[in-house]
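Protein Record: Sequence and Backbone Structure Tokens
======================================================
Tokens: labelled as protein backbone structure tokens, with as many entries as the chain has residues.
Question of interest: how does this chain fold, as expressed in backbone structure tokens?

___
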Amino acid sequence: MNKRNLHIDLIEKYLDNTMDIAEVALFNETLENNEEFVRELNDMELLVAGIKKAAATTTIEEKLDRFNKSIKIMEDEEDDSKTLPRTIYFAFDHIKKYSWAIAASLTLLLVTSIALININQTPTNQKLYADYFTPFENYGNKRSADKVEQNYWNLALAYYDLGKYDSALANFERIQIKDFKGSINDPSFPLYKGNTLMKLERYDDAIALFNGMVEDDDGMVIYAKWYLSMCYLHENNTEKLVPLLEEIAQVKSSYFSDKAEKILDKLK
């Protein structure tokens, strides 16, 4: 093997970090005593530095585009490249050798960047909804002269507390089907059912239910307005959300007044 090819082999192993003890000693000795080897190594280091600088100042899309174009050029000119000086041909060969690893790394970086972008672009309303929505609390079992009605009510709330909202909704609906007036007319009934619908992501149905409560103007209308606002918040319906929160904020005696003001401040 001639001296030039020996230099290229040493540089290749240096870049690949695959030198054994003997080759490390030879590399260090050559680096100290051979100016031509130093120049070749410096050229490669400048090339690497240039690549790193370009990588730091370009977008992921630009990196991928440049990488793909480079691979295409190398594939188109592979035969011609073999006629180039070995130092240049080695660069072609070295890059092609690791093209899949480079592509995988860039793909991973791109996916990670997209994920971070998506996280940063998560709608503010969704974050606020997660921070401020808590289901209407179960205040205890209902007593009724009708034991069947009482059993349905208690069963519905038991499932509600367990987070089994499909089963809770089924029992709330059985109460309505059987027309148990005592339960249906209880102001908390639509709140439980509305919250159940929200947990099942049936926001349109929940909105209709809470709007009915607001129109009826019963004793728990402020609760209805709050959970209605939570539905609007989740659905990004700012046009209806903001005036409703302003109404809630004005009821200073309400538990929800301060919460409504904070959401309004964060929406600004």
